[in-house]
């Protein structure tokens, strides 16, 4: 017999995990599938924005979140010609949490899923990969999955594909995203951190046609080297010494440690793309997060948007899902409301990512001059305020409107 649940979510990233928690918290039966054995991957967005902190507050999780080892970063800066220019300063926002918290994403996802497990309707299946949709009577009726015990079907009232920018469910169901922006290659590597290093939080360093980003992970720096698409080939051609020399020049406090990059094999390139679906649903199936709209790393919008999609989805669908659990038909027409609510925020965020790429990143990579964009933030106070608001809160902040059905069965 096929396993059954009310909602089957493919993907335990920020979108899938937060949606799983919200639904289970309201008494909806939910299964979250995650193909990896844990959440421990290096190259995930680690930025928890003021709007996401507000959501954690609404869920009663903000104190536990702050108990995780984290860093609070009030400003985002660009260092150009040795001078730092703040392009965003969250202290200018009238919000309860005027900072971005840096937490390894695996800690964030562990917190969310641990909280979700308090609710009896929540199941997280690790090492379980969604393979494709099951269709029945003209609607999606579940997923084919492969777990440690082999292949099987999980039947559900609703399938949510939150399986990221390379979504296999999207491909299997016949949905094709439109490419919105040119791609960027981001090459990741690590360098050890010393107590005497500057307290950078997050800082991007630009010069000589290169961009290096440094994220403080307490014992090491998670470094990124941004290049245009195909940039890794150039790095391989130019060789290790050139890479180390560029790094030492742009990030001088790491000059004594560049030898820690002992081989080009230590560099992990990742392609970032901006795309989106024109339709996010069909009967029985919904796409959210990067599966619906892949985000590039620029401005760290992706995690925040994925969480906001999850909150909007729970707000719109929970009642109908609870009724469906009691035997009523699920109202598939509600699915269109999720894209309708989120599409403007997505389009504006992606537009800003493209503009930043065009007027900041591309000009910086071109190397022929200095990108003018950072200087605008130095001269125009309102530009910095706007950027703080847009990065910190997004274009359409969502709030948790769903009730909690406590594990004991009462609704406080
Ligand atoms: C190089 C790079 C750096 C980035 N840095 C940042 C940043 O600093 N800050 C920021 O906010 N955003 C950043 N982003 C964007 C951000 O990572 C995404 O927008 C965000 O993670 C989207 O969340 P999600 O839950 O939709 O998808 P994902 O985070 O991609 O999560 C999808 C999950 O589904 C799982 N999965 C995939 N396929 C299957 C399957 N078939 N079955 C089961 N599970 C599956 C994956 O293992 C993963 O856990 C970055 C993106 C890139 C490419």
Structure description:
With 412 residues, this protein is of the alpha/beta class. Helices cover 34% and strands 28% of the residues. The protein has two domains: 3-179 and 273-393, FAD/NAD(P)-binding domain (3-Layer(bba) Sandwich); 182-272. It is built from eleven helices and 18 strands. The strands form three sheets. Strands 1, 2, 8, 9, 10, 11, 17 and 18 form an eight-stranded mixed beta sheet that branches. Helix 1 runs parallel beside helix 4. Flavin-adenine dinucleotide (FAD) binds at residues 10-16, 33-36, 43-47, 129-130, 162-164, 168, 186, 270, 272, 289-290, 295, 297, 300-304, 306. This is FAD-binding domain-containing protein.
- The CATH superfamily of the largest domain turns out to be FAD/NAD(P)-binding domain
Shape: globular
Rg is 22 Å
Order of helices and strands: EHEEHHEEEEHEEEEHEEEEHHEEEHHHH
- The number of helices is 11
CATH architecture of the largest domain: 3-Layer(bba) Sandwich
List the bound ligands.
flavin-adenine dinucleotide
CATH class of the largest domain: Alpha Beta
What's the gist of this structure?
The protein is α/β, with parallel strands linked by helices and 412 residues long. It has helices at 14-25, 50-58, 62-67, 105-116, 168-173, 231-238, 240-250, 301-325, 335-366, 373-379, 381-393; strands at residues 3-10, 30-33, 47-48, 71-73, 75-80, 83-89, 100-102, 122-125, 129-136, 139-147, 150-161, 178-192, 202-207, 210-216, 220-228, 268-276, 281-282, 285-287. The protein has 2 domains: 3-179 and 273-393, FAD/NAD(P)-binding domain (3-Layer(bba) Sandwich); 182-272.
